[in-house]
Specification:
Elements: H1 4-14, H2 18-35, H3 38-49, H4 53-60, H5 67-77, H6 100-114, H7 118-139, H8 149-156, H9 164-178, H10 188-200, H11 202-210, H12 216-224, H13 233-246, H14 251-269, H15 275-283, H16 294-306, H17 311-320, H18 330-337, E1 341-343, H19 345-352, E2 362-366, H20 370-375, E3 377-378, E4 382-383, H21 388-391, H22 393-412, E5 421-425, H23 434-445, E6 451-454, H24 457-464, E7 471-472, H25 481-488, H26 492-502, H27 509-547, H28 555-559, H29 561-566, E8 572-575, E9 592-595, H30 596-600, E10 605-614, E11 620-628, E12 631-638, E13 641-652, E14 656-661, E15 668-675, H31 682-687, E16 698-706, H32 710-733
């Protein structure tokens, strides 16, 4: 549903003066003819001979068209011809849809705003209503106010179409070919656009995320009307001229990126403004474009398109534009779940092969455990053990800085390993790659540009490699620094000739040596830390159990004010300095299989957050953290059943004794719980028998989770916990 402000904005966009527009168009035509008539004459001749899209693109070069050529060029670009039955139209004047009044009102608003000649007014309105009605019936769609359809007709009714059939073919082709599916609130196209924004400008993406400004709030009419609902008509016509010649169905996303880049400086200055004010400012951005801006506008969009991994187009085309697959596919689901932009391993290998002189170049970061990396790895990959992030965050931060230094040196040296774009690669197994997602999140939090993750991981990459020399083992990499320097002194020209002749990618050996040294240091440190952590867990658990002491509290002490004043705070928020070894301890009893959707519909549910829940072995699992006014629940998702989950934790809020987070990774949160001794099971009663009948709260349980939006979640949970504790104290006093 569009707001009244958006409807008013659309009304203002449709209020154009017919004579002024014609005058502007005539002036533009005269300017074009004065500058260069040769290509126009050449294009006119080609159209008379029956040319195709490729010929139009070669001649027109995405330039604005004259009025007499526009309809013919658009029809060719949109594949509208007598042999194509895809857009067959059956004329009818039966207007009987439930939403017919809404259609008629929108059509009337558009036609009257266009100030069409009075003698053409009725026929134009009937044509539009008939075409929209037939499209709804044929495609089983429901017309809705603000869906962008009526705005698509704004440039189409300026064309001298011969009949309703041709008007229908133009509309249906534009909508089916260039308007993505599921352009609804929180739809797939807007999630994809956020991934593109995150890739190119994580700072601006974070600005929107922290204010909960999602793309469909401001870009809805941009995408759904192909900018016709936001730009003036004299801008929309030449924009569509170039758009249809370019024939890139994803181009609208890159145009939207440019609009945000144009507005970025002003947006950052609006940091203290209200959310609605920022959305209103953004939604009007295209209306400021003029015809003089179009060259720069489209050139910058092409720049962003060429500087973006291309495999996402193939990955997501079917779920955004395909008419044959209307189901909600796994790929569509992956758009919602993606942490960052995915890259196919085929593109990864091709981009860096033979130096990758054009397009996107990648600096590949292998995040597998040290033993897997040592066994075999891509020869250009930098090793960064993902486990180090939790085992030693300070060491990980230092290694991340070394990664950037190595990346810069590889780029400066012209190495095959050098690239501005970071691509992280895991093993390809879901259980092992959960830490890789945390590594990616770490770099995104640092506002690192061009961050992606390899689809399928190393397992798929190894299968895609045809040249076995691209994979090497650890013993093959033991090159001395002296040998590396000697190798580097060889003629670069001869090396390149040999490289091209043998069709083998060659890495700058000095860069390889640097990669070896840093990777080896990280691997050694990772193994040492892992052993130390295991030893620490073993000894501290023994010490805790052998040196635990009990303190008897008398009945009189328990009710005295002095006792209650000296008692530690029942609930606190702390930095988690010593929580490196903390894992989630399961409550007694088995987990419960539940339906996710039914839990979302519970009347007592207040908040829900996507998270990763760590099990007893410190392995993360995709989960949901749900919070009611009295309880905290953790639902662990089932990979094989997307709608079901295991309820692995059900905790009353009044037993939360402490919430801790890691200094270097605040998204990892640990909830510690306490319970009355009377509620312990028989085994714990026997161990702590000297504390029987006391009411001292003791830490017995915890849950560790990774929450991307941890700050907001903890703030809300804290408020609910304090309310629950107050109610608990009141009930105890009563």
């Amino acid at each position: 549903m569009m707001s009244e402000e958006n409807n008013e904005q659309n009304d203002s966009n449709l209020n154009l003066n017919h004579h002024e527009v014609n005058s502007n168009n005539n002036d533009d035509d005269n300017t074009i003819k004065t500058q260069d008539n040769q290509w126009i004459d050449e294009l006119r001749l080609a159209l008379e001979k029956g040319c195709d899209l490729g010929s139009i693109r070669n001649i027109g070069k995405c330039r604005p068209l004259t009025d007499d050529l526009r309809l013919r060029v658009w029809k060719t670009c949109l594949d509208i011809n007598e042999t194509n039955n895809e857009y067959e139209y059956i004329d009818s004047n039966v207007f009987d849809l439930p939403e017919q009044n809404v259609i008629r009102d929108d059509v009337s608003r558009l036609v009257h705003a266009s100030q069409i000649d009075q003698d053409m007014l009725t026929s134009k309105m009937t044509d539009l209503e008939a075409v929209i009605t037939y499209y709804c019936k044929k495609n089983h769609e429901t017309y809705g106010k603000g869906n962008g359809w009526i705005e698509i007709f704004k440039p189409l009714i300026t064309l001298e179409y011969k009949d309703r059939s041709e008007l229908y073919a133009l509309f249906a082709s534009v909508r089916n070919r260039y308007i993505p599916r599921d352009c609804e609130a929180d739809g797939m196209p807007y999630h994809l656009f956020r991934l593109l924004l995150l890739y190119h400008d994580p700072e601006l993406c974070s600005f929107f995320d922290t204010r909960k400004i999602i793309p469909d709030l401001y870009a809805h009419i941009w995408i759904r009307s192909l900018y016709a609902g936001s730009c003036s008509l004299n801008v929309t016509l030449p924009l569509w001229d170039g758009y249809f010649q370019h024939a890139d169905q994803f181009f609208a996303f890159f145009l939207a990126l440019v609009l945000l880049m144009f507005a970025k400086e002003q947006l950052l200055e609006m940091a203290d403004k209200e959310k609605n004010e920022i959305i209103n400012f953004l939604s009007k951005a295209p209306s400021n474009l003029t015809t003089d801006d179009l060259d720069d506008f489209c050139s910058l969009a092409n720049h962003y398109a060429s500087n973006t991994p291309q495999s996402f187009r193939k990955e997501f085309y079917s779920c955004l534009f395909s008419e044959t697959d209307r189901s909600f596919s796994q790929k569509a689901y992956s758009i919602y779940q993606a942490l960052c932009l995915p890259v196919s391993v085929q593109e990864l290998l091709q981009a860096n092969q033979l130096g990758g002189t054009a397009g996107v170049r990648y600096f590949i970061v292998d995040c597998r455990p040290a033993e897997q990396y040592n066994a075999k790895h891509l020869y250009t990959a930098f090793h960064l053990d993902a486990n180090l992030l939790l085992e030693d965050p300070k060491e990980f931060a230092g290694t991340a800085d070394a990664l950037f230094a190595t990346q810069k040196r590889a780029i400066d040296a012209g190495s095959a390993a050098g690239g501005e774009h970071l691509c992280f690669i895991g093993s390809g197994h879901e259980e092992e790659d959960k830490y890789v997602r945390m590594v990616v999140a770490y770099f995104l939090r640092r506002n690192t540009k061009y961050v992606s993750i390899a689809s399928g991981g190393y397992e798929i990459l190894a299968q895609a490699i045809e040249d076995p020399t691209m994979l090497i083992q650890q013993q093959e990499r033991k090159i001395s620094t002296a040998a590396a320097v000697v190798q580097e002194s060889l003629s670069i020209g001869s090396t390149l000739k040999q490289n091209i002749a043998e069709k083998l990618p060659v890495i700058n050996t000095q860069t390889a040596s640097l990669l070896n040294m840093i990777s080896s240091a990280v691997k050694t440190k990772s193994i040492e830390v892992k052993d130390k952590v295991k030893d620490y867990i073993t000894h501290t658990s023994l010490n805790d159990s052998s040196h635990s002491t009990s303190k008897h509290v008398s009945k009189q002490d328990k009710v005295s004010k002095l006792y209650r004043q000296n008692q530690p705070s029942v609930f606190s928020l702390d930095e988690d300095d010593d929580d490196a070894t903390t894992s989630s301890f399961r409550q007694h009893g088995t987990s419960e299989l539940v339906d996710i959707e039914s839990w979302f519909l519970r009347s007592d549910l207040l908040y829900k957050y996507e998270c990763e829940h760590f099990d007893e072995n410190d392995r993360p699992h995709p989960s949901l953290l749900l919070v009611s006014s009295t309880h905290l629940y953790i639902l662990r998702k089932l990979p094989e059943h997307k709608t079901m989950a295991n309820l692995v934790s059900r905790r009353p809020l009044n037993i939360v004794s402490k919430i801790t987070s890691k200094k270097n990774f605040p998204e990892i949160i640990t909830f510690r719980y306490a319970a009355n001794q009377g509620e312990e099971d028989e085994q714990e009663k026997a161990i702590k028998s000297n504390m029987k009948n006391t009411k001292i709260k003791i830490p017995i349980d915890c849950d560790k989770v990774y929450i991307p939006d941890a700050g907001d979640a903890i703030k809300n949970i804290k408020i609910l916990i304090m309310k629950a504790l107050n109610m608990f104290e009141i009930s105890n006093e009563n």
